[in-house]
Amino acid sequence: MQNVKNSFTPASYVKILAFLHLGILATPAILALFFYFQIQDAHLSFSDSDDMFLAIVPVVAMVGIFLGDFLFRKMVKSIPSNMGLKEKLARFQTACIISYALLEGPALFCIVIFYNTQNFAYLFIGLFLLFYLYLKRPTKDKVLNQLNLQGAQKAQFNRLNQPID
């Protein structure tokens, strides 16, 4: 009988990162659908002066976007170029998860506020955040470009089914 060893390959790395991304994206999307079908008298209003969330929700959304992107760039830039590929990919995965979470949190916040106020404005902001999160979907090319892999590491990452040492 042949001993089959589970190997860490670039293809499996991208697949795992994409699965994590999908899981983080799916939670607020499912919650949004659930709340949308629970609401009876929803409306769209940007002029309700008694609704303090009209000021809070857009700020929370913008902070999530900019803070997530800032931290992601900072964490990726701090990865030493002389580090091994496996360690680089682990740090990149951490940076991605933090970036995704900083979009998921505000999206969930928007969706819960939509459910409480029944104002479609918050749902639209939440859906915008989910769309932006979707655009951050990890692919092989994005990993290569964002990590700026060069030389032997780039060649090793391009061999999708070869184990990474």
Automatic annotation (TrEMBL):
This is MFS transporter. The chain crosses the membrane at residues 12-37, 52-72, 92-114, 120-135. Keywords: Membrane, Transmembrane, Transmembrane helix.
